[in-house]
Amino acid sequence: MGLKLAWGQGSMNDIKNYEGIDLWLKEGNCLKKEKRKLIFLLACLIVFFMLTKVLQKKEEVPQETEIIVPDVEITVYNAREDVIQVMQLDEYLTGVVAAEMEAGFALEALKAQAIAARTYALGRALGKYGSNMERHLGAHVCTDSTHCQAWIPKELYSTWYPKADVEENWTRIEQAVNETSGLILTYEGEIINPLYHANSGGITEDIQEVWSSVNPVPYLQSVYSEGEAEYSSFEKKVTVSGEKVREVLMKAYPEIVFLGPVSEDVQVIQYTGSRRVKDIQIGSITIPGTKFRELFSLYSTQMEIAFKGDDELEITTYGYGHGVGMSQCGANALAEKGKDFRYILEYYYTGVDIELIPEDILLMSKEP
Ligand SMILES: [Zn+2]
Predict the structure, then answer these.
(1) Ligand 1: distance of its center to the CA of 78 in Å?
(2) How far, in Å, is the centroid of ligand 1 from the Cα of 139?
(3) With left for phi above 0 and alpha for psi between -120 and 50, is residue 275 left, alpha or beta?
């Protein structure tokens, strides 16, 4: 009844519903005070308990992650000098980045290159991805760019880049290597095969389209790559006479039969999903686009073939290299747009993780 009066409204049903509360409110004042004390104490206890938990959690959050640079040595077969050299991994990597990427590229692109190169070198040291230590006289890697990664020592930098400021460039490359020290690329916990190339011509390639014996690799699949057209390696035009075409093909395939001039003998049969030549017919045979590129030292298999007159080919290629994995020009284009090395690497190598060299890999790479 008290409730009804206090609110000044309601119905008889309300009164019935609140009768229990009404009775409770009418209990003695002492009892009310005791209950309030009890509730207050309970509330204090709950607050105290929650505060303790929060403080504990704060203590558990690690302070800034300390990057410990792993002490890794690598054996390098210096093909130029015909000697095996033992180097610190990052010291070797500085020479790789110097040889593989223009030092004038944005720092984040250089960092992405350093991580790809570190991953590549460690993968080789572990005997993965086509490693052939016999070719290196037992060393982990060699300096032959057609087999492993290109590498130059600081003292030869000026012979490769005569117009460059050696000190400035070398310092910049060292910075990219040092600031990413210990970081490698993994996919589902396994070190990846971080293929890279100079320029993708606007789109990278699926690995299985370049190496037909290789199964599809989830992190080496085609992606669009913008901003590469402004680099000199993006577009190249070459002309090849019909006579030269026949000479080169007959040397590689003595059984080949020609029907007439190249305008009748050369035809692209199939393209890959990234607009690269998959198969090309020449006279009586069909060869992979990759073989055609190799035979005529073309920049890329992404090409347009036109005929100049009856018996001359005009080949326009887009991009430079096999087109798989990270495009170096694309990486620089992304870096210039403000993207960092993590974004760049995750863009070209779909689904990878960037992590410090795991302990098991460190141990394996130290095994003789
Ligand atoms: Zn090698």
Answers:
(1) 10
(2) 9
(3) left
Q: What is the pLDDT of residues 209-246, one digit of tens each?
A: 999 888 999 999 999 999 999 999 999 999 999 999 99
Domain extent listing, the chain: 2-60, 73-229+326-366, 235-318
Cβ contacts of 19 within 8 Å, gap of 6 or more: none
Tell me the three state secondary structure of residue 23: helix
Ligand 1 centroid distance, CA of 147 (Å): 4
11-25 residue pLDDT tens? 334 433 433 333 333
Report how far ligand 1's centroid is from the alpha carbon of 76 (Å).
9
Q: How far is CA 64 from the centre of its chain?
A: 25
pTM passes above 0.70: yes
Specify whether the CB–CB gap between 268 and 280 falls below 8 A: yes
Looking at residue 224, the DSSP 8-state letter turns out to be B
Q: What is the DSSP string of 77-141?
A: EETTTTEEEEEEHHHHHHHHHHHHS-TTS-HHHHHHHHHHHHHHHHHHHTT-SS--GGGGTT-SE
Q: In angstroms, what is the span from residue 70 Cα to ligand 1's centroid?
A: 23
Query: What is the 345 CA–ligand 1 centroid distance (Å)?
Result: 23
- In the reported structure, the alpha carbon of residue 137 is separated from the centroid of ligand 1 by a whole-number distance in angstroms of 10
All residues at 6 or more sequence positions from 3 whose CB lies less than 8 Å from its CB, including other chains: 10, 14, 15, 18, 21, 22
